[in-house]
Amino acid sequence: MSVSFVQHRIQAEARARKLALERSATTEVRIADIYKYFPFRLFGLNRDALQDLARIEFDAELELCRVNPEMLEQYIDMKRGGFRTGFISDTYWNTDQLAQLLRSCSPGLTWDFLYASCDHGSSKSEALFGAYLAEQGIDAASSFHVGDNHNADIKGARRHGIRPRYYPQASAALASKLQRETSIFELLCPDQPSRLDCGARTLRRAVTARSAEQSPAFNLGVTVLGPVMAAFDAFIEARRTALAREGARVAIGFLGRDGLLPYRVWQASHDETGAYLEINRRVSLVGSADTLEPLSELLSRVVKIDAPTFVDIVKVQPPAVMNFFAQYPDGIASGRELADALPDLMDPREITDIAAGIRSRLLAYIRAKIANFDDCTDLILVDLGYSASVQKSLRRIFDREGIRTRLHGVYLLTLDDAFDDVADDDTAEGLISDRIVTPHVKRMLIRNVALLEQLCCSDEGSARDYRGGEVLREGDQRPAAQLALANEVQSGALAYASRARDLAPRYALQPDADPAVAARWATAVLGRLLLLPDDDELVLLGGIRHDVNLGTQALAPLLDANLINDCIIARGLSTACTAPAPPMWLAGSFAALSPSHAYLYTLFGANRLPANVFGEAQCGTLQVGLFGHDGQAALEPVSVYHTGLGDLRLRIPLSRRMAVATIALPLAKLTRHGMLHGITVQYGESAAKAAESSNLKTVAEARLIDAGLERRGRQFRADTDDGMLLIPVDGVEAAVAIYTIALTALDHDRILAVEDRDDNRAPAATLSWRNANDAKATSAE
User: What pTM value is reported for the model?
Assistant: First the structure.
């Protein structure tokens, strides 16, 4: 009802201003004029409630408005300098209400003049400045006006000869981010009001306005990552306070490497009370093992692994394992194959000896990093997330060593269904939990979280072992430029956190007063960056490579728009939305295609992309020619599908035994004027497996041969229905290959789906569409 109320209130104002313009050539109205057009009955009210609604809205205005300290300081300085000083406002509040609002924000405030546009029947863009100059008897050239609306304040003042100063509430870039964040909020948190945020956006505008423009990376930290980290910092503090209130002796450990930025934010405001612990999943899991199962679980997640990497993880060289690697080309096997074979390659006693050594060295490291560790009753582990794997491993290590310290995981993002096996005395909770967004949304965020990990990460290699209370690290393969960019972003985030702490009390703002509201807006801010990045952010961040960090030296790309485009061609939009990594930043890869692609991906992740709208529907068949190496030719009918975006797809399955050398595709029978988006090839041991394959190849445009077609770039045109596209067929790598052709028809409006016939096949070379010049449904060959 609140959302409906707000929208009707906005519509009422639009109607009131439109009618005022028609009647008196001005759009100026008072609050009572607005509520005349409000639908009272819809909300169980009668028209006698008009004044009550106007009064209640003014009460809300009094409660929500804040003085801008910088503007107040300038105002007081001008008064002290002997200038006649006052206020001119475009507003539906009358002069008395405007005076009350000003003094509510700043008690004791005085002025020499006060102008409310609704009392003068003219705005600043019209004649209000002229009325002020005439009534006050002021020379325009000696008058000075400060305002935040470029059209009304700046252009309006200049038109009357008044010197203006532009004070924007938000830069164009920040305003765009805020608008996208509201859209993301309403999509990811649909049952919550998006208009109130406990002052979080007001604080962001204030901090940004007082932050000098620096590098794009620094500005990203100030405007986006800083607010998220500030909310997370408040969440950590709330958990620490709650434990301390219960009488616990609490220590806090921030897990490296991507816990570094939360650690830096914490240290800057909490007198260096936290510890930075370089403990990763791999080291803690092996250290907690008493069977081969944890090691097998870890290895199963590794795409490729070789003998040196295995030795680096477990610190031993079992002969049977070395022989296992020797059987594979270049000594590289899949992690899954190694995990399945491991029980036959290692004696379980070997892993228990390895684990005991790691536990001893790890505990010595923890005691060196956390003063009085053995006196702590509770240890808070802070990390970005997600399933508390390090926390669970540390619990097993503590239990084996007789350490009764309780563990409390505090995470930015959580997979909450992974917490059921957390020990009974321990806890795990996330700022962005499944109570804030749905599990569908959470998995979409985590699928794209690699970008956040790289921005929060330290610039040192991952921990591989410990010695004498010190960490031993792997080499770091990330480029120096990437590390410098991450440091610059982190500097901006730290600057935001520091300035926000200073400014929040001055503005009487408490953005973290309501933990649920703070969590929802942290979701919107982070979700906007991960899911709907703008072009500047894609340019800034698109070159980052993700450190896989499982004992490998692999760096995976964040972005690969070409791969996603090929996946859309071959398998459709919805399937592309579930593409496996890499690319690590899937939403960014969609955004690199277009902003609308990124939004469609976000809709999919929010479970708002219906398959029967954005999927494929058959709209006819087409006879294609298949020419063999021996000169033999055959015509085969293939189905034609249209997509939810109006494109056409043809899939041509070929078997190895068909020995096809060339596909002759009669494009002109589909459309004489169109756009060819691409041709992809998938391989598999059966048609079903080929269709499911995400291992795609593309046919280069330069290899295509035109017969009766004219192609320029992606566009093609044919003068007759005989125009053909000849596609060369390479040797089929598996039993079946599927060639998929994606195009858009440009010479008619809309291809229509056709019902299946009894033989499940529409007439050959037939399509149905709605003609642009003739609204009737027609069909043509």
Answer: 0.90
Structure tokens at 13: 């104002």
Answer whether 699's CB lies under 8 Å from 726's CB.
no
Q: CA 145, 146, 151: angle at the middle one, nearest 5?
A: 90
Determine whether 555 is exposed, middle or buried from the number of CB atoms within 10 Å of its CB (0-12, 13-18, 19+).
middle
Which among 227, 236, 190, 200 has a CA at the least distance from the CA of 437?
190
pLDDT digit string (tens) for 315-337?
Answer: 778 889 999 999 998 888 888 89
Strand-pair partners of 728: 662
In the 8-state DSSP scheme, what is residue 461? P
Running DSSP on this structure, what letter comes out for residue 475? Answer: P
- DSSP annotation of 304: E
Summarize pLDDT for 222-255 with one digit per residue, the tens: 999 999 999 999 999 999 999 999 999 999 999 9
Q: Residue 237's closest CA among 193, 268, 283?
A: 268
Q: Are 117 and 28 in contact (CB under 8 A)?
A: yes
Residue by residue, DSSP assigns 338-368 as HHHHHHHHS-HHHHHHHHHHHHHHHHHHHHH
Extract the tokens encoding 687. 């048609």
**Which regions of 355-448 does DSSP assign to beta strands (E)?**
378-383, 406-413, 427-432
Residue 84 pairs in a beta bridge with none
| DSSP assigned state of 513 | S
pLDDT tens-digit readout, 543-578:
999 886 554 556 889 999 999 999 999 999 999 999
Cβ partners under 8 Å of residue 766, min gap 6: 620, 621, 779, 780, 781
Residues 164, 153 contacting (CB under 8 angstroms):
yes
- Tokens 């870039």 label which residue? 173
